[in-house]
Amino acid sequence: MSTTTTPKTILILGGTGNQGGALIRALLTTSNTNTPIQILAVTRDPTTPHAQSLLSSLPKHPSTTIQLIQGDLSDVPALFTTALEASPSNSIWGVYSVQAKPANDAGIPLEEVQGKAVIDASISQNVSFFVYSSVDRGGVEMSSDNPTTVPHWATKHRVEKHLEEKTQNGEKMRYCVLRPTAFMENLSNDFAGKAMAASWSAVLKHRKLQLVAIRDIGWFGAEAFLHPEEFAGTYLSLAGAELSFEEANQIFKEKVGSDMPATYGCVAKALLHVVKSLGAMFEWLKKNQGGADVEALRRMKPDLMDFGTWLEKDSQFRKK
Asked: Can you tell me which family this protein belongs to (predicted)?
């Protein structure tokens, strides 16, 4: 006699964003057939061409299904109500929490408000496993103890502390905290990407910067959900490369055939002065090193992307 196993429902915030999309793809390509999974990918509007394109482009998996659901972090209870209605078991087993907007125009720290609200709702709904996407602040101990003077990093630190307090350090809900370093995807051929490159060169000079590919963040998130016993209570700083600007630019020239696109240094410095949070971030990076153990991470994931591999596989740049 055959039996049907009720799938584990995983709620992924920002399901059509970069991190959410990377996590979904990783779950669809690495999950096994022993534990069926239902992915609920949260998006503001599931009917948009972008959302529908993401859904149609995803690989198929024999035991993992995906559904787009409408949700807004300004109303977390309503979001969870929608998710529960979409779940076959009327329950949510896992939650991936990522917030991107530090504050609104009035200065209210939306990321903190929303991040804490998602934690509280998850606990109240008896979620079994929670993955929070935070930021590296110099390694495990330093990230845990020092919020830094970078406003949006300090916000994530407070959300982490809320997670620890409300779960009683994992007693009420198991969790894993991912702490990515700088995204390789921040280097792009638009103004923001060029300003990032120029800031790296002008401010950090010969200091090394740790970087991670968003695809790899998704992989570690998927591994946490697929192996919760191994990842529960862990804090992972994530990076696949540690390079000075000169080293990165040399790799860029070898892979793409030109220098990394960048604005003028004076433009970058003016931007860092105007955008206080960005300026604070580079000021911190000028004095502190990223804390990811790249070699240890590569032992966990042998195909962890370095900068050259990312340029070839995932970047918008192609060799001329």
From this structure: Belongs to the NmrA-type oxidoreductase family.
CA 79 to chain centre: 20
CA gap 54, 28 in Å, rounded: 13
What is the DSSP secondary-structure string of 77-108? HHHHHHHHHHSTTSS--EEEE-------TT--
What's the pLDDT tens digit per position in 6-51? 889 999 999 989 999 999 999 998 856 567 899 999 999 998 888 8
Cα–Cα distance for residue pair 198/219, rounded to 1 Å: 29
Pick from 164, 182, 160: nearest CA to 173: 164
pLDDT of amino acid 2 = 41
Residue ranges of the domains in the chain?
8-181+214-238+291-299
CA 192 to the chain's CA centroid: 19
Counting beta carbons within 10 angstroms of the beta carbon of residue 304, is it exposed (0 to 12), middle (13 to 18) or buried (19 or more)?
A: buried
